[in-house]
Amino acid sequence: MIPSSPVVIGLAVAVALLALFVLVRRLRAPSAEARESKRAHEAAQERDAPVEIGETYEFGVTELTDHHSGSEVAVGKVEGFVVFTEDIPGGLEPGDVIRAKVLSFNEGRTSADATFVGRA
What we know:
It is a single chain. The protein is of the alpha+beta class. The chain has helices at about 5-30, 30-45, and strands at about 55-65, 70-80, 80-85, 95-105, 110-120. A five-stranded mixed beta barrel has the order 1-2-3-5-4. A hairpin with a 5-residue loop joins β1 (about 55-65) and β2 (about 70-80). The protein is elongated and about 80 Å long. The N and C termini lie far apart (about 80 Å).
């Protein structure tokens, strides 16, 4: 026979709610990948940029993406620092090596905008 005392029922409900709360917190918690991404982003905000405005750098294109301006830009990295390159020619593909001149830093100096200079 199952006890039907109000104290026992209240305790069972409290334990069930606690278990449900723990389950929901675990499901809503950021994944290990998200935590690592956040850590890397915070570390990037604290370091000095390895590029300088007005200088030209050579790097590999990691991806092509749409810029907020509506044009396609090449994305690459210089010493792990992300550089978005505008004015890219047609036919450019990930894996191509390009030269780009840095024009400005983005908010937080965690990335930079550049203009295409040529293929390497």
